[in-house]
Amino acid sequence: MATVSAVLARLLPLLPQRLVWIVAQRYIAGITLEEALQQAQNFASRGIRSTLDVLGEFVTSWEQAQQYAAQGVAVLEAVAQHRLPIYLSVKLTALGVDIDPEGSYGLLRMVVESARQRGLFVRIDMENSPYTDITLDFYRRLRADGYDNVGIVLQAYLRRSRADLESLLPLRPSVRLCKGIYIEPPQLAYQSRQEIRRNYQELLEVMLSHGLPTAIATHDEELLRFAEERLQRYAVLPDRYEFQMLLGVRPERRELLRQRGHPVRVYIPFGEHWYGYSLRRLRENPNIVAHILRALLRGDQER
């Protein structure tokens, strides 16, 4: 299945967008905020939280960065209005960090301030390795500016993540721990599945043992079982952790987690830039295609 998935992921750019959408729509809510909110409402009715992500990375103009920030504020306004269990995820490359770093921090701070005024939370997503330092720096600056309604992401495949986590411990950060999806060189990132799993387990152990607010973001069965065992060992209360999964990926396992009493959150991307996002994600992680193909063969639909 993995080989078939990799081949399919490479062929996607050659296909008409409508065919790519057949695959992509399993894990993208749609184009509009209304579509994303409807998905989130459906999940909320089943006791599942959501993260909304306005698609749009690597903007090429400051106007685009401002538009992205405005969309983030619009999401927060809608979430507050509908009173849904949602937080917002933002990317620095969409906020123009490559164009004007200081201006980008200003836009980020504006979005986080908008969230604070509404009692909401924002997670700064982690992108590929050229942006790791500035992402962590922006997070530290926000915390120094008095914002506690903001979290960070660490990627288990990066060799530096253990040191980054330890440096953040005094801040008691809210951390989303994922494997990592970008293609990185061996000197920066572990390459084998087992190395990445081992580092994920070690990072999770540190986070849980220190009582950090922890988002366990993985679809890996071995890691899910490890996490459940460690949660029990440390007697972690439900308000200190949650499992997070992508829209459309392993919904049956997500439901099992929910039935076992674990807090669960679904990552819901949406927006006009779905095509580029889909191609990047499917090329970088063809295993997503494998999950989708299995679900399609079972007729296991989210919608």
Descriptive report:
- The chain has 303 residues and is α/β, with parallel strands linked by helices.
- It has 2 domains: 1-28 and 272-303, no CATH class; 29-270, TIM Barrel (Alpha-Beta Barrel).
- It contains 12 helices and 8 strands.
- The chain has an 8-stranded parallel beta barrel with strand order 1-2-3-4-5-6-7-8, surrounded by 7 helices.
- Strand 3, helix 6 and strand 4 (150-155) form a beta-alpha-beta unit.
- The longest helix is centred in the first third of the chain and has 21 residues, at 62-82.
- The two termini are 24 Å apart.
- The relative contact order is 0.16.
For the largest beta-sheet, the strand count, sense and barrel status come to: 8 strands, parallel, barrel
**Poorly predicted runs of 5 or more residues:** none
- The helical percent reads 40-55%
The total number of structural domains is: 2
What percent of residues are in strands?
Answer: 5-15%
Order of helices and strands: HHHEHEHEHEHEHEHEHEHH
Query: Roughly how many Å apart are the termini?
Result: 24 Å
CATH architecture classification name of the largest domain: Alpha-Beta Barrel
Write down the CATH class of the largest domain: Alpha Beta
Which strand order spans the largest sheet, edge to edge or round the barrel? 1-2-3-4-5-6-7-8
Coarse morphology:
globular
